[in-house]
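Batch job 17 of 40 flagged for manual review because the log was empty.
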Amino acid sequence: MEEKFKITSVVSVCNNRIWLNGKLAFESKEPDVARFLLSAFQNLKISYPKFYKMDGLSKLGWIAAEYLLNDKPGFAFNDNFSAGMVLANKNASLDADLKYYQTVASIPSPALFVYTLPNIVMGEISIRHKLKGENAFFIQEEFDADFIAQYVQGLLNNNILQSCICGWVDLLNEDYKAVLMRVEKNGEGVEFTSQNMLTYF
């Protein structure tokens, strides 16, 4: 018999706002995505110098995860191999790819090249929160809630993970959106289903 899992927290980042569990957590009037993400980072009042070196997609996912995981402690259940991530987006790492390509005519930028894979955002989140569990990144034309829900449920039902961050992180030029959810075996919240996931989009 399959267990029922819970969405214990949700964060949404778009239109210069960060919503956490349906409540406005941060808002900025910055004119572009780079300055908005910087202001959202500064609002956290933490020291993390590596943030400034990240590409836009990684900054977006990192910010979303920071607000999400700071909401309630104990996400990894003191076992970093039991917490993982399943993310998706439409544009892969195209934003960083294009910026890197612009440098190729003169001197290719190694600092940009390291971000020319979409799953690097998961690496940045994992480094920050010391997550070592299963992870996967999918490229989809639009968010496929049925597929993501089935994939995450498989990881949890088979005890590969006890908790999972899942959702959507996409950025291209000034168009961006992140919606991340904490899904846990033991927690309180809304039942983890594809229909409930879609309500946050």
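Reviewer: the log was empty due to a logging misconfiguration, but the result itself is present. Helices lie at 33-44, 56-71, 94-104, 110-113, 120-129, 145-157, 194-198. Unflagging and moving on to job 18.
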